[in-house]
Design brief:
Elements (H helix, E strand, L loop, with lengths): L1 H16 L11 H30 L6 H4 L13 H25 L3 H32 L9 E3 L4 E4 L5 E5 L4 E3 L1 E2 L27 E2 L4 E3 L1 E4 L8 E3 L6 H33 L1 H5 L4 H26 L1
Amino acid sequence: MATETAIHDDVHHDKENWDGGDQPMKASYGKLMMWYFLLSDAFTFAGFLIAYGTLRISMDTWPDPDYVFSTFPFGIHHKPLFFVSVMTFILLFSSYTMVRAVQEGKEENKSGVVFWMILTIIGGAGFLGCQAWEWNTLINGESVTVTTNPFGKHTEAGVYLDANGKECETFEAGGDYLIHMSGHVAPGAEHAECAHSNYDGPGDYPDAMVDEKGYIHRKYTVTDGADAGMVKTESFGPKAFGALFFFITGFHGFHVFSGVVFLIIIMLNSASGLYARRKNGYEMVEKIGLYWHFVDLVWVFVFLVFYLI
């Protein structure tokens, strides 16, 4: 009898310590799986950014972000980091509105959840709109593609020559240059004395080389070093720049787009009262919140490597 009592007490004691139906660390299966997904996605982004850093370090020259990303809507130019700062603020503010939606969900406040999720959706859509404008500017305004990068840096000092052999647009070693297509005027250079694309072809600019795709390569004279006095032709920048930029920012943009789609679905479910009936603190809102914060965090690293360094 004493033995049976002891066994019974041990079984009862074990049930108090652990029950197979309990959630470990108070995390549901859904939130646990979201964390696993975000961890694997973090490794993916880390691989892309490490590849970017490796290729950039291996190149002799690389475009200066202050020069590449210097345009702003409404015809404003030469404002480095202005536009991308606006993009970053929009996305980070949407992270705050997402926090507020989760807080309202914990209080089982349906109207609060819907309100703050709508603001989050607007923020995500605004970020995507800004990214679309930036891509359009680079592709159609600056002729950047995944295979062609007109931005780069000179490795030796010199001056450009205009159509009459006159010195134009003096640059120093490490200075930036940009190649444009025939007939295209560089933004902000419309009224410049030596606008380096203000012509329609080799007949208008005999001292420039026009390649088979219509890109105009200006000629310049080297002013110092072993090649001083020689006339050389500017060449394209590192091809990897355009491919890496569009791929990595596009991959992140796809995450933002996917997040906006899921936010809309979850917001509609919240408005319908689906999550209120579950009485679980709007856990689905919390799960999409984890994803949205991850997307915002990744953008901080993308912003760092592409726009700041």
